[in-house]
Design brief:
The protein is an alpha+beta fold. The chain contains four helices and three strands, in the order ααβββαα. The protein has a single domain, classed as Phosphorylase Kinase, domain 1 (2-Layer Sandwich), CATH 3.30.200. Helix 1 packs parallel to helix 4. It starts with a helix and ends in a 10-residue tail after the last helix.
Length: 96
């Protein structure tokens, strides 16, 4: 079992926004995929021209119980940030 404080610190390094902030900016839709530690939902970003997005909802309980899941999440975020920065057209863009 992983220390909850250590998980919280690691997650702070990974995320750019909190759930409360995201709830104001996105409308959560149906589940379109599931994985080891999360569900992916279809969604819309609010604004004058709503944008279709995929929102990953991470299950904190899984990360608390499975250190490898946290490592997988960290690797995924790093890869998406790199790909987003390169402007690769066939890779999903990481917004937050």
């Amino acid at each position: 079992m992983v220390d909850a404080a250590a998980i919280a610190e690691d997650l702070d390094d990974l995320v750019d926004a909190r759930v409360d902030d995201l709830a104001e900016r996105y409308e959560l839709g149906r589940v379109i995929g599931e994985g080891r530690f999360s569900q992916v939902h279809a969604g819309k970003r609010a604004g004058r021209t709503p944008t279709l997005v995929a929102l990953k909802v991470i299950e904190l309980e899984v990360l608390l119980e499975d250190e490898e899941a946290l490592e997988m999440l960290e690797a995924e975020v790093v890869a998406l940030r790199r790909a987003s920065g390169l402007g690769v057209s066939h890779v999903v863009r990481l917004h937050e």
